[in-house]
Amino acid sequence: MRAIVIGAGFAGLTAALRLRRWGLETLLLDKQEGPGGKAIGWDGVPTGPTVLTLPEVVRSIFAEFGAEPPAMKPVSPLTRYHWPDGREFAPELDLEATAAQLSPQETQDYRRLLGEARKLYEGAKNTFLFAEPPTLSKLARYGLSDGLQAHPLLSLPQLVESGPYLTPFFLRFATYLGANPYQAPAVLHNIAWVELGLGVYHLEGGMRALADALYQLAKAQGVEFSFGTEVTGLETETEGLFPGMPYVDGVLTPQGHFDTDLVVSATDRHFTLGWLGKPVPDYELGVAGFALLMRLSEPVALEHRIYFSRDYRKEWQEIKSGSLSTDPTLYLHTDCENAFLLVNTPSLQKLERRKLEAESQNYAQMLLGKLKSLHPLPIAEWKAMSPIDYSATAYQGALYGRAPHGLLGALRPNWTVGNLQNLVQVGGTVHPGGGVPLSLLSGWNGAGWLLERLGR
Ligand SMILES: Cc1cc2nc3c(=O)[nH]c(=O)nc-3n(C[C@H](O)[C@H](O)[C@H](O)COP(=O)(O)OP(=O)(O)OC[C@H]3O[C@@H](n4cnc5c(N)ncnc54)[C@H](O)[C@@H]3O)c2cc1C
Predict the structure, then answer these.
(1) Ligand 1 atom closest to the CA of 232, numbered from 1
(2) Quick one: which of 223, 229, 355, 453 is 20 to 30 A from 143 by CA?
């Protein structure tokens, strides 16, 4: 059988590895000029992910091939948080070291909320993360056991209310799945455990180095790659391979038509719907981002920092209303001669494209000014990436697809598209959700699910 994988991000790379392991002739197409997807980078400067969590997911994929993953080093402190009044907080995995920076009341709240995050993560992981999309009966089983403990009637802000510093600190983790934290369900608090309880890791060369290592592994296994190849459509058929049922038998690109027996789409789910001429659902999309990519004239320490805005709630009200925040919270990552600054923004579903084009240069200058006053860096060269740039890999620039808002919002779209028999949709916009480790799992498990469905 011949398989085509579309998208050489983390999900596409692991899907291709899984298909190849089953002996399928596998071709991976990507419109970009190299592997990595959102992590492709700008000559070494990150364009997307900077933080690795759940390193065992990476280890287990390399172990499937008897290969060594790139070295992943724990980062400590995990992240350095700053508030406008000068308060700083640098949590570590070591609870004593963390508590030493907090008041007695904050220590109590931190321990309680960390325990709560752990309980939510442990309760959800086997149903929602490390398995196929849950069936109705699995959901019902979760609902009756751990789901009842997951505060189904509470919003995230209600669950994590713990004073002026710890509240925004705990709210922010929901943005890692594309949420506006003030509209997120309490269960998204589980993400805090992944970082604060299980740790943050760094790879030499950043996240692009992980994509490159997977790419080399896939090439060594015999996966073929065609970069600079943009998919423009999928051809479907109802006769032949699956009589009476629709399936994909061709992938269209400007370079020509590729015949295929099965397809893994590891791009944004909305792109796949477009190629099939299916309507895009009108649900709310999650957040986008505006980034500054900076090359430095001298090396600086490896760090992750967050500079909170003066009023976190107001910042998210602005984003909700479709504006760029006037006083955004900054995420800053520095690593040797590279620096990356990111702020949350609305997606292009709410931000008007033409207005954004007109505002981008001034917004970038405002961010540079804010950075200079908070954390001066020896910037030699920089460029901005707005939601319009991110829309090349993310529909409307929404980095994680559908907004995970409301009680069922945390449930990601599943792997099927229509009732196509030989296509699986994987990646950060579907089950089990955004973030590098979950995209790796999505690709690996989604490809395995399709093989099983086809009786392999
Ligand atoms: C700014 C930012 C910061 C982030 N920070 C973190 C972080 O610190 N830690 C973390 O774990 N996660 C982070 N994430 C999320 C993480 O980057 C993503 O969840 C993950 O990279 C998604 O991988 P993927 O393989 O699903 O999709 P993608 O990386 O989007 O890959 C999809 C690929 O499909 C290709 N493609 C799209 N359309 C076509 C077409 N028509 N034809 C051919 N190819 C096509 C694209 O070129 C792309 O290479 C961040 C994301 C962003 C954008």
Answers:
(1) 41
(2) 453
